[in-house]
Write a structure and sequence with these properties.
By secondary structure, this protein is an alpha+beta fold. It is about 25% helix and about 20% strand. A hairpin with a 4-residue loop joins strand 6 (about 175-180) and strand 7 (about 185-190). Helix 1 (about 15-50) runs antiparallel to helix 2.
Length: about 300
Amino acid sequence: MPDGRMGLQDQVTQLGQQAADFHNYWLLTLCVVISLFVLVLMVWTLLRYNRRANPTPSRNSHNTLLEVVWTLVPVLVLVAIAVPSIRLLAKQYSPPPADLTVKVIGHQWYWTYQYPDNGGFEIVSNMLKEADDPSLAPGARTRTDADGPKLLAVDERLVIPAGKVVKFIVTSEDVIHAFAIPAFWTKMDANPGRLNETWVKVDKPGVYFGQCSELCGARHGYMPIAVEVVPPAQFAAWVASKGGTMPGAKPAPAADSTGSSPVTTPAVPATAAPAAPTGQPPAGTAIQQPATNQAATAQN
């Protein structure tokens, strides 16, 4: 874990909590019970059937009841594991309608995130290096404690709103990567030329870290993922700061370049037109002109 603890990370999604509970309270309990049973059986066999306690061994080679028991019990154990596992898989691959879609693209060795629902803008996320890193470019930003742990902090975080269903479309530009955030119980392969899909719904704001979990080359260990979950209002402000727009939001009005436009100029009260001279038609009346071929003559 980023904080040094061992075991599964604290889960912040409902599906992840169910999976962690299944692992901690059912699978581990089952493993302990089976291990203790096998240990007790081995000790009892060593004590009961050694040469001193049982100098004349039994010649029996078959026992129908035992054979039925040691066949059915493992089957029942597997069924007890399979039923909740299949239930979890069904929930994982039956996502609710998404409130936000993010396209995740893996590269050697960084991530890019596109927001097609918010104007299609893209952010590029690279790992932040340490101040004493000899490969650090002059003037480049370095990691601080506020950015996150070493090897996990990035210069641009993936930002999503809290309490919303977020669909991740995962792919790759070059080789196979894996988009994995343990606190979300999320791991999805990023294959070049293929779109994979997963989803999360995180109610608790915070910063959550992950890494590429598929060996992808020399700098595979330097592809961290940092996801910042923020309230919806803060997410909208962040989208605007990146030049994007929220779905349904009207674009900002363009600057007015028509200062004399009737739309922006107050209406001027109409005044009576001066009377026409005697013999002339009133103002605004079309005057019938005699037919002529002057225009045709000019063109010739």
